[in-house]
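EI: anyone free to look at a 142-residue chain?
SC: sure, send it
EI:
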Amino acid sequence: MTRPGFVFSTRLRVRYAEIDGQRIVFNSRYLEYADVAVTDFWDWTGIAAAVPGWADTEFNVRRTEIDYLRPFRLGDTIEAFVRIDRVGTSSLTKRFELVDADTGALHTVITMVSVHVDLASGRPAPLPDAIRAHIAGLPTAG
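SC: here you go
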């Protein structure tokens, strides 16, 4: 499926363990979906092979905003679209749109700010130039 503004997506299926007593996906699970989707996104970008030291690069989530527009249910197939909306001095802002893969209906929008941190100090650190360059070279939606 294509979605305006996105060039990457990955699919997930709602499992029994992810639903709550109302038989819909429990709210915290949407952050797990974003985590799986961003891991697949980074793999898709090829950054691990292109940027020396990527495996030692650490990002901590600083802020997340979630708009729950409609619930997912057991057995639904989710298509998770991911893009980087903003590159700051030490941060990345990512946008996730979780869509029903069968109907194309938008269910959830997640905006997540992650901060690059120095592992030794645990403090924010500027994004390395190699990471900036790799992100700048990624395909964009036209």
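EI: The CA atoms of residues 58 and 92 lie 12 Å apart.
SC: 👍
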